C-alpha cells in the first residue's frame, strides 16, 4: 500500500541501519518486505517497462500505422495486416518457409537428441568425451562463422557435392538451389541437437532404477521397458524441449541471413520470417509493416506454445498425477 | 578391456556396437569443424579439391593475410569491440538479475506471483516484436552506432533466463542463514551482499558463461545498431570479410572463422561442467 512512499526511504535508512537500530528499541525490520521487494525488483521493473512490455504495446500501435522513422506515424487501421495476407506474396512465402523449417528442423532435432541421450545413458566408457563432442556444435551453431562454413560445405565445390559425386550424384550447389537451400538450414539446426540431448540426459537420470528392476523381473524386454517406462517418464522433459524448440526455431535469423547474403534467396526459398521483418523494417524502413509482422509472430508463437500446453495433459505424464 | 570385472553381466559386443555408432556419429558431427580448421592452413587451390581435413603443412599465411581487411580495419578492432560488449553485458546481467532473483526467491511482497508469471512470460517474447520500438528509443537517444543499445538493457535484467536460473539456485540456499543474519540485525541489502551473493557463485559463473557465448555469437542486434567498421564486432567483421573479399580468399576466410570460434571453445573447455549443469537445470539454449 505504501510502495510509492517507502521506495524512497531505504536510501535514507538503509545506509545506516545500525544507527536506526539503536534509536528505537531494536526494530528487526526497518523496512517492510513489500518495500524491499519492489526495491530489489526495480531494475527489472524498469527494464520490463522500457524494453519489453512497453515496446510490445508500442509495436501493437505502430502495426496499425504507416511509419518510416522520419515522419510521425500515420494511422492506417488494419491496412498492414490486410496487405500482408492478401497482397504480399513474399510474406506468405516467408510464412511457408518458416513453418516448413520449424516443423522439420525442430522434431528432427529432438529425435536425434533423444536417440543420442538414450545411447549415452548406458554405462559406457568415455561418456564425457562423447557428450562434449555432440554438445559443442550447439554452442557454436548460431554464430556467423558456422553459417559461413555451412555456405561453403553446401556450395558448388563444397564437401557435400564432392562426397555425393563419389556416389555418382553430380550435384549442384545446394545453397543456390531454390529446392535445396532450406534443407541445408534444416541440417544446420539438426546438427545442434546437443543442448536438447543434455536436457534429455538429465531427465533420464531422474527415472528411478526400481521401475526398470521391477519391469525386468516381470519379464519386460528392452523394447517394452522403453515404451512403458522410459518414454512415459520422459514426457515432461520432451514437452519442455518441444516448447523451447518451437520458440527458438521460429526466431532463427543468422544462418538464413548469412547463407542468402541477407536477401532470403534463391527465389525467397530461405526467406525466414525474421529475415523478412528485418528487410521490411530496417532495409525498406516500413516500420509499421514490420511491427505488424512482429505481432503476428508473437501470436503464432503464443498459439503453438498454448497448444503444446493444452495438449500436454493428454500425453505428458507427471509423477504426482498418477 | 571395456568390459572388465566391473560389468560382467554386460554382453561385450553390444558395448562395442554402441561405441562404433557413437564414434561414427562423433566423426560426422566434428567433420565440418575439422574440415574448416584444416582448410585454414591450406592454400586456396587445395581447399575444395582435398577432402581430408588434415593439411599437408602447417602454414600460417592465411591467418596473417586474413587478420587485416582490405579496408584497413583489422580483427584486433573486432575482437576488442566484441570483448567490450561482452564485458558490459556480463556485468549488467550479474547485477540486475541477481537483485531481481533475490526478490523473487526470498522476499514476500505484494503481487509477487503475478510478477513472477510476467517474468516467465517474457521468456517467450520474440525479439522481433520489441525491436522496432527499441530501435526508435535508441535512435532518439542518439545511441545508434555505439555499444550502449547492446549493453544498457542488460543492466535492467531483460534476460529473464538468468533471473530464473538464480531464483532456482537461491531457493536451494538454507534460509536459516538469512534468519540468523536478520536476528543479528542485518537488513535485506546486507543479507544480499554478505550471504546471498557469495553463495550464489556457481549461478553467477553460469550466467557469465552464457552471457558471454550469447553476446559473442549475437549477430542480429549488432547488425542493427553498429554501422561503421571501427565499431564492428567479430560477427560483423566476419560478414564484412565475406562481402569484401568473398569469392576469392577462402583460406584467409577459414582462418578467421576458425579463430573466431576459439573463445567459445576455450570457455567450453574450462567450464564444461557448469555449462552442462546450466542447460540441464533450466534449459538454456546452448
Explain this structure.
The complex is a heterodimer of chains A (322) and B (286). Chain A has 322 residues and is mainly alpha-helical. Chain A has 16 helices and two strands. Chain A has two domains: 3-44, no CATH class; 87-321, MetI-like fold. Chain A has a two-stranded antiparallel ribbon. The longest helix of chain A has 32 residues, at 89-120. Chain B is mainly α and 286 residues long. Chain B contains 14 helices and no strands. Classes of the chains: A mainly alpha (322), B mainly alpha (286).
Topology:
The complex is a heterodimer of chains A (322) and B (286).
Chain A (H helix, E strand, L loop, with lengths): L2 H4 L3 H6 L1 H7 L9 H30 L2 E2 L7 E2 L3 H8 L2 H32 L6 H14 L3 H10 L5 H8 L14 H11 L2 H13 L2 H9 L4 H29 L3 H6 L13 H11 L3 H29 L7
Antiparallel strand pairs in A: 1-2
Chain B lengths: L11 H28 L4 H4 L13 H7 L7 H32 L5 H11 L4 H14 L7 H4 L8 H12 L3 H9 L4 H12 L1 H17 L2 H6 L8 H11 L5 H33 L4
Helix pairs in contact in B: 1-14, 3-14, 4-8, 4-11, 4-13, 9-10, 11-14, 13-14
Radius of gyration based on Cα positions of chain B: 24 Å
C-alpha geometry of chain B = globular
Beta content of chain B comes to under 5%
Q: Structural class of the secondary structure composition of chain A?
A: mainly alpha
CATH architecture of the largest domain in chain B: Orthogonal Bundle
Number of strands of chain A: 2
CATH class of the largest domain in chain A: Mainly Alpha
How large, in whole angstroms, is the Cα Rg of chain A?
A: 26 Å
Number of helices of chain A: 16
Order of SSEs of chain B, N→C? Answer: HHHHHHHHHHHHHH
Distance between the termini of chain A: 42 Å
Strand count, sense and closure of the main sheet of chain A?
Answer: 2 strands, antiparallel
Q: CATH homologous superfamily of the largest domain in chain A - what is it?
A: MetI-like
Number of domains of chain B: 2
Give the CATH H-level superfamily of the largest domain in chain B: MetI-like
Strand content of chain A: under 5%
Helix content of chain A: over 70%
User: Which pair has the most extensive contact?
Assistant: A-B, 107 and 101 residues
Instruction: Say what the CATH topology of the largest domain in chain B is.
Output: MetI-like fold
Class by SSE composition of chain B: mainly alpha
Low-confidence stretches of chain A: 1-24
Amino acid at each position: 500500500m505504501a510502495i510509492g512512499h517507502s521506495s524512497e526511504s531505504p536510501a535514507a535508512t538503509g545506509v545506516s541501519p545500525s544507527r536506526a537500530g539503536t534509536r528505537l528499541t531494536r526494530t528487526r525490520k526497518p523496512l517492510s518486505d513489500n518495500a524491499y521487494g519492489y526495491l530489489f525488483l526495480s531494475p527489472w521493473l524498469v527494464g520490463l517497462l522500457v524494453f519489453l512490455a512497453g515496446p510490445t504495446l508500442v509495436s501493437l500501435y505502430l502495426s496499425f500505422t504507416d511509419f518510416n522513422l522520419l515522419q510521425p506515424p500515420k494511422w492506417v487501421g488494419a491496412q498492414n495486416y490486410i496487405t500482408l495476407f492478401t497482397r504480399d506474396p513474399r510474406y506468405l512465402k516467408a510464412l511457408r518457409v518458416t513453418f516448413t523449417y520449424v516443423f522439420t528442423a525442430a522434431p528432427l532435432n529432438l529425435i536425434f537428441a533423444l536417440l543420442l541421450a538414450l545411447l549415452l545413458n548406458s554405462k559406457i566408457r568415455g561418456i564425457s568425451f562423447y557428450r562434449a563432442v555432440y554438445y559443442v556444435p550447439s554452442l557454436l551453431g548460431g554464430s556467423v562463422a558456422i553459417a559461413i562454413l555451412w555456405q561453403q560445405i553446401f556450395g558448388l565445390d563444397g564437401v557435400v557435392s564432392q562426397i555425393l559425386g563419389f556416389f555418382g550424384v553430380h550435384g549442384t550447389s545446394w545453397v543456390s538451389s531454390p529446392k535445396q537451400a532450406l534443407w541445408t538450414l534444416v541440417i544446420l539446426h539438426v546438427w545442434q541437437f546437443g543442448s536438447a540431448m543434455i536436457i534429455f540426459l538429465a531427465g533420464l537420470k531422474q527415472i528411478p532404477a526400481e521401475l526398470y528392476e521391477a519391469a525386468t523381473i516381470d519379464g519386460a524386454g528392452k523394447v517394452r521397458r522403453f515404451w512403458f517406462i522410459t518414454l512415459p517418464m520422459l514426457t515432461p522433459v520432451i514437452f519442455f524441449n518441444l516448447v523451447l524448440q518451437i520458440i527458438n526455431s521460429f526466431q532463427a535469423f543468422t544462418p538464413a541471413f548469412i547463407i542468402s547474403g541477407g536477401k532470403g534467396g534463391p527465389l525467397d526459398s530461405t526467406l525466414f520470417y525474421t529475415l523478412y521483418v528485418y528487410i521490411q523494417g530496417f532495409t525498406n524502413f516500413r516500420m509499421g509493416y514490420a511491427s505488424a509482422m512482429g505481432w503476428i509472430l508473437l501470436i503464432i508463437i503464443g498459439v503453438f506454445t498454448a497448444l503444446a500446453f493444452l495438449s500436454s495433459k493428454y500425453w505428458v505424464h507427471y509423477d504426482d498425477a498418477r | 578391456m571395456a568390459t572388465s570385472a566391473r560389468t560382467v553381466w554386460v554382453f561385450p559386443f553390444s558395448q562395442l556396437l554402441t561405441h562404433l555408432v557413437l564414434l561414427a556419429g562423433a566423426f560426422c558431427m566434428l567433420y565440418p569443424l575439422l574440415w574448416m580448421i584444416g582448410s585454414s592452413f591450406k592454400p586456396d587451390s587445395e581447399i575444395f579439391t582435398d577432402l581430408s581435413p588434415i593439411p599437408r603443412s602447417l602454414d600460417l599465411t592465411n591467418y596473417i593475410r586474413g587478420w587485416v581487411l582490405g579496408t584497413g580495419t583489422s580483427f584486433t578492432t573486432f575482437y576488442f569491440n566484441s570483448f567490450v560488449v561482452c564485458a558490459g553485458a556480463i556485468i549488467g546481467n550479474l547485477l540486475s538479475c541477481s537483485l531481481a532473483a533475490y526478490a523473487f526467491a526470498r522476499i514476500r511482497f505484494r503481487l509477487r506471483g503475478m510478477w513472477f508469471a510476467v517474468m516467465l512470460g517474457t521468456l517467450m517474447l520474440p525479439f522481433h516484436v520489441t525491436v522496432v520500438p527499441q530501435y526508435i528509443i535508441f535512435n532518439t537517444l542518439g545511441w545508434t552506432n555505439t555499444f550502449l543499445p547492446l549493453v544498457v538493457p542488460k543492466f535492467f535484467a531483460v534476460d529473464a533466463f538468468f533471473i530464473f536460473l538464480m531464483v532456482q539456485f537461491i531457493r536451494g540456499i538454507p534460509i536459516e542463514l538469512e534468519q540468523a543474519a536478520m536476528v543479528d540485525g542485518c537488513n535485506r541489502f546486507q543479507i544480499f551482499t554478505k550471504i546471498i551473493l557469495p553463495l550464489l557463485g556457481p549461478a553467477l559463473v553460469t550466467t557469465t558463461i552464457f552471457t558471454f557465448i550469447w553476446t559473442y555469437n549475437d549477430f542480429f542486434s549488432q547488425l542493427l545498431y553498429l554501422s561503421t567498421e571501427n565499431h564492428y564486432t567479430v560477427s560483423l567483421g566476419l560478414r564484412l570479410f565475406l562481402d569484401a573479399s568473398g569469392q576469392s580468399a577462402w583460406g584467409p576466410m577459414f582462418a578467421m572463422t576458425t579463430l573466431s570460434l576459439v573463445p567459445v571453445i576455450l570457455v567450453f573447455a574450462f567450464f564444461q561442467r557448469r555449462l552442462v549443469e546450466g542447460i540441464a537445470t533450466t534449459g538454456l539454449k546452448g
